[in-house]
Amino acid sequence: MQFVSYGINHTTAPVEVRESIAFNPDTLPSALRSLKQCPGVVEAAIISTCNRTEIYCHIDDEVDASVAGNWLEKFHQQQNLSLDRYSYQYQGDDVIRHLLRVACGLDSMVLGEPQILGQIKTAYSEALNNETVGKCLGRLFQHAFTVAKQVRTDTAIGNSPVSVAFAAVSLAKQIFASLSEATALLIGAGETIELAARHLHDNGVGRIIIANRTIARAHNLAVQVNGYAIDLSEMPNHIAEADIVVSSTASQLPILGKGTVERALKERKRRPIFMVDIAVPRDIESEVGDLEDIYLYCVDDLHDIIEENLQSRRDAALQAEEIIDSQVDSFISWLRTQDAVPVIRAIRTNAHNESGYLLEKAKKQLEQGVDTEQVLKELARTLTNKLLHEPSRQLRQSGNDTDNNLIEAARSLFNIKE
Fold it and tell me: What are the tens digits of pLDDT across the range 362-413?
């Protein structure tokens, strides 16, 4: 069997393509089960974030590696949109290296960002809950978690506060002379919004409003940043108050339209609003960006800002790559040991059967009054001959065929010194 992976990310596809094949929490379970049902797919997991959608599979050797990509296009009914020019595919050892790099944040828009690790853990949990991940793919994900932790401990990859949320706040600071007089409306209550809220609070923003479908979750976050929470349905009524809007929800349709924003601008007497749409699919209609006094940015627009202050992370990334090289070799070694497991099991089963048969025979001899020492000697001699007969025959045959490989393997296997 072999590992295969297929995906698109922020470097290979624009946001409109990425959002067309993204998975939301509601569809992910059925998607996993559908993928697992593909002929030859033994294990499967799906990572889907605003910046990437990636499929990881453990498949039978005779299955074509394109099975993941074919399934993705079919599931999202994207046959008319060829993903070939936007996608990448890995096989075998390259899959191991890629997942480790992704988990360590080396393949992220923000080099070394920590959020991706949590997203991968969520993807693994979903696969585990839906019984689509087993021994080998599960071990690979666990290994990725361990390596990511090692990289964060042993390098400075996470020392600089650089993230999509941080980039959004940095841009807001460039637009507004002082954040202390600004009101920020944050839509959603996930990890990215939480980071944005903390960055805004740390930079002294005047007021924070958090809108979310689950008011209790919004309230929990608001308490931490001295803000206040509103239900998502109330959000349109508060747009006019906001100088800064940051949105990141899991909605499949835009939740903020052009008409709502136009009304807010009139109420604000044309005072500008800075908007950042971090969601994929997008939360804010793209037409909103055409309005005067609106500065709308999506995740792709933040790339240039993210480039700042990354040199220390780039240096740390070189160290991380060295760690990953070593850990890829380590995982490959583990995989190779798995090839030996069925052989070891067969050897043990055979030995157990032989010893069990001879032990029963010895018990009957003892019951018949045969001398105990004689029975034990016969048991030891017969068991030794039984277990070593076939290996000895194969080694003699190997010597006759002038093939020393098996002989050398036997020396290593039985730890026989010269």
Answer: 898 888 888 888 888 888 888 888 888 888 787 777 766 666 677 777 777 7
Q: What is the topology classification, in CATH, of domain 2-160+313-337?
A: Beta Polymerase; domain 2 (3.30.460)
Could you give the dihedral angle defined by the CA atoms of residues 102, 108, 114 and 120, in that order, rounded to the nearest 10 degrees? -40
CB 185 within 8 A of CB 240: no
For residue 99, give the nearest of 132, 66, 145, 65 by alpha carbon: 145
Better pLDDT: 4 or 398: 4
Which residue carries 């030996």 as its tokens?
Answer: 340
Tokens in use for 212?
């979310």
Cα distance between residue 306 and residue 309, in whole Å: 8
* Alpha helices for 83-238 (secondary structure H): 93-103, 115-129, 135-154, 164-175, 191-202, 215-224
Q: Any catalytic annotation for residue 104?
A: no
The pLDDT tens digits of the residues spanning 275-318 come to 999 888 899 999 999 999 999 998 888 877 777 667 788 889 99
Contact 267, 240 (CB under 8 A): yes
Domain ranges of the chain: 2-160+313-337, 164-306
Q: Are 283 and 254 in contact (CB under 8 A)?
A: yes
Between CA 418 and CA 411 the distance in angstroms is 9
| DSSP state letter for 284 | B
- Helix 191-202 and helix 215-224, axial crossing angle in degrees, nearest 10: 30
Quick check: 224 and 205 in contact, CB under 8 A? no
Distance (Å) of CA 62 to CA 1, 66, 84, 132: 8, 12, 22, 20
Going through 335-391 in order, the beta strands assigned E by DSSP cover none
How far apart CA 214 and CA 232 sit, in angstroms, is: 8
Catalytic residue among 38, 50, 136, 298: 50
Q: What would the CATH number be for the domain defined by 164-306?
A: 3.40.50.720
Read off the amino acid at residue 43.
Answer: E
Cross-strand partners of 2:
59
